[in-house]
Amino acid sequence: MALLAGLAVPATTATARAAQGAPTPTVEEQRLDKAVPQEILRRSGFDSVAPDFVRDLARTHSFKQARGIVVRDGTALWRRAVGRAQGRGPAGGDLGRDDDRPLYWARLGMTRDVRRWEPGFGLSDAQRSTLLEELERTSRGQSDIRYPSRATGIKRILVTGFDPFTLDRDIRISNPSGAVALALDGTVIQTDSGPARIEAVTFPVRWQDFAEGTVERTLAPYLPKVDLYTTVSQGRVGRFDVERTNGAWRGGYPDNDNISSTGTIPVAAPATQPQWTTTTLPYKAMVTARTGRFPGYDHTEVTEIPTGSTEPVVRPDGPTPGSTAREGGGGNYLSNEIAYRATLLRDRLGLHDTLPGGHVHTPVLQFGAGNTDPATGKITDPQFVQNRLDIIAQLRSILRVAADSALK
Hints:
The chain is of the alpha/beta class. Helix content is 36%, strand content 16%. The longest helix is centred in the last third of the chain and has 25 residues.
């Protein structure tokens, strides 16, 4: 299942649970002690992250000091994951450097420790919530976006990725969009209009975080300053898709905390909320260029309720005037939602005609033949690694084509 499915009645998130003073780990955190996450951490060297973090916290004597440690160690985790993915420093084990999973599981170890930490100086529910928010933000690269000055002439590209998901179906899962973010963050590509620096961030697969505005808070300071952006997620088997249209609907598929949500995507100023937003990426160039082994598609299909009707209809060529969204090109899960939120933010900032931006779906990252059963399979295999490396390389090439076409 790709990041194409559903969301609705906001339920309690990790942050909200902390604010309520509940000591119970989140559903995501409860998976952490299973054999697969522990093997991933051990074979990447990231098994030391949470224990080191706990020791750092134990040396603090105030909330201010604790917050400083959270910011420092969260930022260090992101930079360590990026450095590992890009070949800097020790690999820490035999797990492929391109793997996004160590970052995901190490972060959960840290959030679980913050949730159950009881310092001697006392920690209010609001303070614990703040620590969790800072840890999420810093360990996802959201506070680490650095572009060179405009005077250098270097173009600016922003890319987003996601955590692994559908972990109850197969806890071994990796998300190629997260691997793309780690591989490309801070790198420079050469385009027809000169060098372009890519900065990348990741987002959780949780409905409530999106309802609370994590996408808008992260992207709003940067969209007016970049030359091109694309949100990225895992999509369909064997293909890249540039999604033409995004819909304002959550379809209810459970997130990483096994919470569902169905209804109109909750945004600020809902009275001015459109049912549909569209890409401004140069999609024709992106899907026709030879960028790698996977074919690319200009994906135009949506599901709508036409004006005057009550039943959803699939439209292969996009929505009809006045219709109500039920699925964008990227479905009605968090892929579609991040695409919708980012393009709506682009339009509300008055950038529709000047900023190329939209959503790209990568192929599903598949394990090799003979390693497809999660009950008996290994956490990695040569074909799995090669598939991920090929997706990363092709997404880099797709960005280069987009920049060549759009940044004249």
